[in-house]
Amino acid sequence: MNKKHPSAWDPAIMLLNILVSVIGSIIGLELIARLGISTNTSIIGALFAIIIARIPLKIFQKYKDINTQNLVQTAMSGATFAASNGIFLSIGIPYLLGRHDLVIPMMVGASLAVIIDATILYKVFDTEMFPAKEAWAPGIAAAEAMLAVAEKGKNSVILMIGMVGGIVGKIFGIPTDILGVGWIGNMWALGAFGVGLLISEYTPKFFNIKLGDYYVPHGVMIGAGFVALIQMILILQKKSKKEKEAAAAEAATGKVEKKEFTRSLKSMKFSLAEGFGAYILVSIVMAIMCGFSADMSAGMFVWWIIFAALSAIISELIVGISAMHSGWFPAFATAFIFLILGMLFGFPPAQLAILVGFTSATGPAFADMAYDLKSGYIVRGNGEDVPFEMEGRRQQYIAKMVSAVIAILVVLFTYKAYFEKGMLAPVDAVYVATIDAGTNMAVAKNLIIWAIPGALLQAIGGSGRQLGVLFATGLLIASPMAGITVLVGLLIRYIVVKKYGDLGQSKLYILGAGFITGAALYSFFSSTLERNLINKNIYYRRNLLWNIRLA
Fold it and tell me: Looking at residues 468-490, what average pLDDT do you find?
């Protein structure tokens, strides 16, 4: 098969990608500044390209190619997450702390973190740790939406039914995106996720206990994350040995076996090492720009640089695992964990602000890049044509980098206008209030205690099921009815698959993708409408942010 993938450098494609990147950046900034949320705009980007393709002019005809549409959705979603979760949220932390002089250094660090984040994922996608065949549910949703338009067959009807169901469910307050995820992801991982969600939602209602006050979710995630890292290391060592043995056998017999993954564990280890080195360099740049060497001892200065880099890469791996299995990623909460650990190490407030901003910038781009590559993997034929698949990924990476640059520029030229109006990401106030409050040994004790069950659960489930990480993810997320919904979804899935087998599962994939798509579209447009109403209360919101800061 000698197919040629559309080039992201094609002038027409590049022009549209720049346009949707600007739009995606603005959408991301508006939503996170006014509502405190961000949304996956992949499907919006794909629909944008599909609509333009309907214009009866020759220049627009290339947008009919599903691979071109995939490049457009990649650019739009990349810009949305880069601008909102990656950069704007991060720079608001030192600003709210009162250190306006640290905003630009933070922007430099966060911008580079977003680029490194996406680059690492590009290099480790479809390895033993992050297989292309895993769920990556939002990626499936975007792909199925594009395929439904292209094929116009029975599956498109199923997808449309799912979209209607997703929208109707959202109208009545049911998290139908979670229902869709339940039909796509790993059942064991999602089961643990659902139980975590239930505990998170109902413990305060029935027992009047807020788990966050005792750092239960954070402790569980620390324990689970620590064991997950050990599992990763062991797998890397084990699989590397197998790869060497396979290579030796091939050399001896001359028989080349078909590879299960398109990237080797050797290349993955090298990419992660490269990523860590890049984070070290960025940490040094930020520390110098912020003048931290004058505020800290030499030993503490060096440790801050190392810890910042470790926090960045560990955070993105944890976020990646959560995103792969559940379609959700607890980036805010994961950054909060490293903030608490930094406080226990005794880092000063300014250093903590930069640390948590840097950590929160890693993870979202990692997850989003994976979703986009999963979309591409499906529309390109699920890896059947390896050269075509690898070229497609390369073009998606180019589109993602272009969107990141656009996002950086949009934030650079707009953030002052938002900040002067008191419009920051609400989670920034949580980070700053935590830094102001300080911590003590009681917090450390709680983290250690609850790290034990998290570690045990992760160890019992193994690297394939990720029970500990997904259970902790559920504990960290507050979403009404989400726990019940995901467990109901899993029950429906069990019944359907038991009765209809693989055919039933394939239809659930498409129906689930429809539910996710419908929920995403409803959330986006309802949030856009709600935004106009919230404009009337900006004054009160500004005062609230500063009251939290000063309390």
Answer: 82
Task: State the helix-helix crossing angle for 467-476 and 216-253, rounded to 10 degrees.
Answer: 150
Indicate the burial class of 210 (C-beta count within 10 angstroms; 0-12, 13-18, 19 or more).
Answer: exposed
Q: Per the structure block, which two tokens stand in for 225?
A: 């994350």
Each residue's pLDDT tens digit, 424-441: 887 787 778 778 777 667
Tokens at 183, concatenated: 């039909």
- Rounded to two decimals, the pTM is 0.77
Is pLDDT at 48 greater than 80 in this prediction?
no
Tokens 């346009």 label which residue? 19
| Dist CA 400 CA 277 (whole Å) | 22
Please state which of the ranges 67-76, 130-139, 174-183, 264-273 shows the lowest mean pLDDT. 174-183
Query: Rg of the chain over CA atoms, in angstroms?
Result: 23
Q: What is the pLDDT of residue 538?
A: 46
Q: CB of 516 within 8 A of CB of 181?
A: yes
What does each C-alpha distance from 407 to 20, 37, 278, 516 come to in angstroms? Answer: 11, 17, 21, 25
Residue of 334, 328, 337 lying closest to 194 (CA atoms): 328
Mean local confidence (pLDDT), 322-331: 73
H helical segments located in 362-437: 364-379, 386-420, 426-437
Contacts of 22 (CB under 8 A, 6+ apart): 79, 406, 410
Mean pLDDT taken over the chain? 83
Tokens found for residue 542: 């500004």
**517 contacts: CB under 8 Å, gap ≥ 6:** 43, 141, 142, 144, 145, 159, 162, 163, 166
Q: Tell me: the pLDDT tens digits for 211-261?
A: 878 888 888 878 887 787 787 777 667 655 655 555 555 555 555 455 678
Per-residue confidence (pLDDT) for residue 53, from 0 to 100 = 79
For residue range 339-378, what is the model confidence (pLDDT) as tens digits?
888 988 889 999 999 999 999 898 888 888 999 999 999 9
Q: Cα(368)–Cα(379) distance, rounded to whole angstroms?
A: 17
Quote the distance between the C-alpha of residue 413 and its chain's center.
25
The pair phi, psi for residue 452, each rounded to 5°, is -65, -55
Report which of 239, 296, 298, 297 is spatially closest to residue 263, judged by C-alpha positions: 239
Q: Which helix (H) or strand (E) holds 468?
A: helix 467-476
How far is it, in rounded angstroms, from Cα 249 to Cα 348?
55
Contact between 3 and 388 (Cβ < 8 Å): yes
Contact 207, 201 (CB under 8 A): no
Joined tokens for residue 466: 């990720």
